[in-house]
Amino acid sequence: MTFIILKGLFIFYFRHMLSNECKYGIRAVAYLVDLSHLNKHVGSKEMAEHLDIPAPFLAKILQKLSRGNVISSAKGPGGGFFLKDENMTRTLIDIVNCIDGPGVFEKCFLGLPVCNDKNPCAVHHLVVNFRNTIRDHFQTKTFADFPYLDKGM
How many C-beta atoms lie closer than 10 Å to residue 26's C-beta? Predict the structure, then answer.
């Protein structure tokens, strides 16, 4: 019974750790990774349609990622969003930091303003290792490491 409750808490935490904006940003980058071998520039409307994301919302996300040098963009005819070789060395944490800001993986599971090893919330010690593992993966996985993410994301 306790295991089922903990599993449910972890699933809930992971689903709500990142904003929808950030999740859409990760999906958009995965889409660009999928197309990177074609050297194709993709417009936000085309990408929004393919990913089933509201086009105006995705356009703002892509602009934010482009301004943060996480992805590349070109204006004018034949323009759009794309990934250069240097973009492919970026990590998932770069997307998270650009959209949700740094510190996402330091927030309290219960939403308390102060929660750490010295002043833990009721579930801090249950989730801290899980949260740190996810953060570590996001810090080390480059865009080149996840060409498969477009499928079903």
Answer: 19
